[in-house]
Q: What sequence folds into this?
């Protein structure tokens, strides 16, 4: 376990970013929503609200922690690349950064009590775009306007699961949300005698929230459905109180930094509801179907709605193959394979045209010994359109994570 701790400290001590994943759509609201931080979750469609996996920590539904049998530590890094086209020109951008960290402890298998804490992303803003303007006359020279946005919202959480009557399990978390989002607009003149000016809008948000979830008992057993080995339904609700947001507007030039206004407002992020169904054939073939809804049309900043936001509807279907373990099974046979498809009606809308996304994803877990694994997942997605001069994006996510399981706090027999 000492080696595990050293690795965790080393990886968690830095966050690397090679470039911005420049999607101008993230300019609106709080940017792209991060549904998952781990390869396991990406491999089952980001949601997995009914997935019970004692070898991984899933943050979409705290009720899933009821089957924890060992202390688990997980972390991951992620690569994002995007090819963005306006119909005439295409640009490619990418970024790599540390995604998140979780740790979980089984407290009571009999009562389904597991305690999990972690730091994971919630949303991200990351774009960079430039518009060029030719000189209309001799008085005003040609100039460029650079639009740039960075930052996002993260959450620290701690929560617990517990068993309910009739074989159901439930869980709840306390979440603390925090983050900084910076929007910049810079005007640069081709005539170097003119001074470059940058307008900056910084928003720092903090607040609390909670996630509560429930997973049913094995309905295949309860209703004697011989077709399935396991059949469950589940749901989770993510609530966020209004985030207190400190705002600073400033103008910067070569010789001056002018703070134009400072204030404190509230950011309202609507409730998210997720539901799902999972079933298994035999001991190895598992299927997940999930749906998530979040009415982002009700999002407000300082009491004002954003006309470029609409409600989110996200669906995914995933398949997971996990061979039944037996003495003498090889490492290759122990690899867990995942694959799926997804569709999302994103929160973005322009000129009455919604920005939709379709994706395919897959991944695997390779064992690193008993209850330890390296997890890898890849997702390819397409979203947007070139209609109405909008942008079409082809994106790739590649996540790599480590999951460690150890027996802690055991009482030895004397």
A:
């Amino acid at each position: 376990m000492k080696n595990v701790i050293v690795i965790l400290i080393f990886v968690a001590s830095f966050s690397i970013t090679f470039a911005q994943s420049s999607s101008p759509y993230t300019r609106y609201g709080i940017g792209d929503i991060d549904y998952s931080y781990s390869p396991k979750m990406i491999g089952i469609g980001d949601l997995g609200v009914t997935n019970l996996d004692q070898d991984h920590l899933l943050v979409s539904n705290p009720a899933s922690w009821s089957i924890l049998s060992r202390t688990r530590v997980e972390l991951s890094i992620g690569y994002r690349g995007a090819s963005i086209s306006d119909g005439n020109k295409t640009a490619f951008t990418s970024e790599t950064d540390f995604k998140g960290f979780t740790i979980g402890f089984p407290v009571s298998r009999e009562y389904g009590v597991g305690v999990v804490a972690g730091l994971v992303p919630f949303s991200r803003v990351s774009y960079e775009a430039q518009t060029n303007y030719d000189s209309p006359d001799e008085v005003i020279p040609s100039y460029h306007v650079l639009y740039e946005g960075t930052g996002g919202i993260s959450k620290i959480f701690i929560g617990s699961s517990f068993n309910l009557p009739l074989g159901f399990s439930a869980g709840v978390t306390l979440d603390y949300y925090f983050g900084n989002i910076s929007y910049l607009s810079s005007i640069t003149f081709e005539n170097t005698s003119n001074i470059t000016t940058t307008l900056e809008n910084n928003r720092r948000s903090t607040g609390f929230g909670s996630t509560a979830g429930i997973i049913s008992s094995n309905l295949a057993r309860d209703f004697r459905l011989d077709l399935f080995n396991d059949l469950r339904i589940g749901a989770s609700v993510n609530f966020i109180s209004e985030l207190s947001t400190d705002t600073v507007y400033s103008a910067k030039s070569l010789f001056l930094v002018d703070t134009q206004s400072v204030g404190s407002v509230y950011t309202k992020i609507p409730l998210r509801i997720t539901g799902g169904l999972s079933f298994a054939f035999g001991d190895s073939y598992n299927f997940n179907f999930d749906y998530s809804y979040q009415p982002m049309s009700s999002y407000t900043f300082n009491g004002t709605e954003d006309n470029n936001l609409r409600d989110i509807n996200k669906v995914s279907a995933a398949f997971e193959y996990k061979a039944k373990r037996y003495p003498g099974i090889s490492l290759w046979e122990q690899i867990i394979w995942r694959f799926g498809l997804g569709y999302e009606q994103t929160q973005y809308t322009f000129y009455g045209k919604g920005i939709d996304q379709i994706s395919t994803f897959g991944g695997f877990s390779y064992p690193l010994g008993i209850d330890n694994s390296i997890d890898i997942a890849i997702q390819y997605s397409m979203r947007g359109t070139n209609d109405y001069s909008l942008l079409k994006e082809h994106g790739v996510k590649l996540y790599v994570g480590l999951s460690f399981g150890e027996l802690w706090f055991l009482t030895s027999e004397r």
Remarks:
- The chain has one domain: 2-406.
- Residues 1-19, 410-414 have pLDDT under 50 and may be disordered.
